[in-house]
Design goal:
Layout (H helix, E strand, L loop, with lengths): L1 E6 L17 E2 L2 E2 H9 L5 E6 L4 H8 L4 E4 L4 H9 L8 E6 L7 H12 L4 E7 L6 E2 L5 E3 L7 E3 L3 E4 H9 L7 H7 L5 E4 L10 H10 L5 E14 L4 E3 L2 E3 L4 E2 L7 H14 L4 H5 L11 H14 L2 E11 L9 H11 L5 E6 L5 H4 L3 E12 L1
Parallel strand pairs: 1-4, 1-6, 4-5, 7-12, 17-18
Antiparallel strand pairs: 2-3, 6-11, 7-10, 7-11, 8-9, 13-16, 13-19, 14-15, 17-19
The chain binds cytidine-5'-triphosphate and magnesium ion.
């Protein structure tokens, strides 16, 4: 029988969030949920120490099979409270920090294997790469221990039930449990630790942990182009705005080339087809649809595929209308249709050359940068 205690009752003062550290989100789960999966493959009983007032929330996250108890004022106190709940037929106890959320199940398995081969206390450790100095209260170095004989110690730490009970019997205080076992004069075995079992203390540690999860953002770009012929008598819709007293353009929808170019840029970036395949003539429900409606629909489609918009830019190409005086208004309309995304709007003529230079219509080119987590 193997019991595991997860120390999660700290407030996370150095992290500086409004919630306890164990409830911080790392990728798709909270730190406490990650920590449970670090040790669940070896533990028959799991006890979590929670900060006072957060017991129910943590219980809901970890599920019914796990005991949640209120922790103590210090980490050692919390561990003792956890120890008192360990079932009496337990052979080995693993003690793990919720803050070391990404310790792999293999690490816990290696700790247990060393216990089974006869060690009474087993702790993971990494080589100390920095030189460490002992410094007096007034800031003077008193010694430089040999770095080669030092290890940076992690959790989960494993002990025989008898030894860890004896170590905590005197109500000692230490930053890890092995230190209390060392005071008893018992041998503590160090096995190879893991970089990914780093202790998450600050926001920058959380960013490092995210890299271990491979959860940095993936960015994708796309380009879209649209052009429509002027059609006398139709209203002109462009960049999400109605332009009174201007000839409109022909088209299945309202003919807003800026909006359509942006939709295609978003489709190109996300690999979800194009304007025609998503809203084309075979989709009669989009006949006459406004540019902003199509932008909203496109946004919904790319979000459904897990993407978010980082930035969109569109350049209108044509002799008229003149965009400049309504640029801010148009950017606001496009951005609103895109859920508040950052939008840039530019305009140019083509020096009398080509389709739009001849004054036959309006074109637009857009680019989009999107990302997924
Ligand atoms: N811990 C605990 N009970 C306490 C204090 C700490 O169970 N009274 C736990 C923390 O939840 C953490 C682990 O011990 O998982 C290691 O402590 P640390 O990383 O220092 O976390 P916090 O104490 O929460 O952070 P801080 O010191 O910045 O407040
Ligand atoms: Mg602490």
């Amino acid at each position: 029988m193997i019991a595991a205690i997860i120390a999660a009752a700290g407030s996370g003062e150095r992290f500086g969030a409004e919630i306890p550290k164990a409830l911080i989100q790392l990728g798709d789960r909270t730190l406490i949920e990650h920590a449970v999966s670090s040790i669940s493959s070896v533990a028959d009983q799991i006890i979590v120490t929670a900060p006072a007032g957060y017991e129910k929330q943590i219980q809901a996250l970890v599920g019914d099979g796990i005991s949640v108890v209120t922790g103590g004022a210090t980490r050692s106190e919390s561990v003792r409270i956890g120890l008192s709940k360990v079932s009496s037929d337990t052979e080995y106890v693993l003690i793990h920090d919720a803050a070391r959320a990404l310790a792999s199940p293999a690490l816990a398995q290696n700790v247990v294997a060393a216990l089974k081969s006869g060690d009474v206390a087993v702790i993971p450790g990494l080589a100390q790469t920095d030189t460490v100095k002992v410094v007096s209260a007034d800031g003077i170095v008193t010694s430089t221990p040999d770095r080669n004989s030092m290890r940076k110690i992690q959790t989960p730490q494993g002990f025989t039930y008898a030894v860890i009970n004896q170590a905590h019997a005197a109500s000692g205080e230490a930053t890890d449990d092995a230190a209390l076992v060392e005071s008893l004069g018992k041998p503590v075995r160090v096995i190879a630790g893991e970089e990914r079992a780093l202790k998450i203390t600050t926001a920058s540690d959380l960013a490092t942990a995210l890299q271990f999860l491979g959860k940095s953002n993936t960015f994708k770009t796309g380009v879209g182009v649209d052009a429509h012929h002027f059609e006398v008598g139709r209203p002109l819709w462009l960049a999400g705005l109605l332009w009174p007293d201007q000839d409109g353009v022909e088209g299945h929808s309202d003919g807003d080339v800026a909006a359509h170019a942006i939709c295609d840029a978003l489709f190109a970036a996300s690999g979800l087809g194009d304007l025609g395949s998503n809203f084309g003539t075979n989709k009669p429900e989009y006949a006459g649809a406004s540019g902003t409606t199509l932008l909203k629909e496109t946004l919904a489609l790319i979000e459904k595929s897990g993407f978010k918009i980082s930035h969109v830019s569109v350049q209108v190409i044509g002799n008229r209308p003149k965009i400049g005086s309504r640029r801010t208004e148009a950017i606001a309309a496009l951005s609103q249709a895109l859920g508040g995304a950052e939008v840039a709007l530019l305009a140019t003529t083509t020096d009398g050359m080509g389709l739009t230079g001849e004054g036959k219509g309006i074109a637009a080119i857009a680019s989009a940068l999107i990302y997924s987590k």
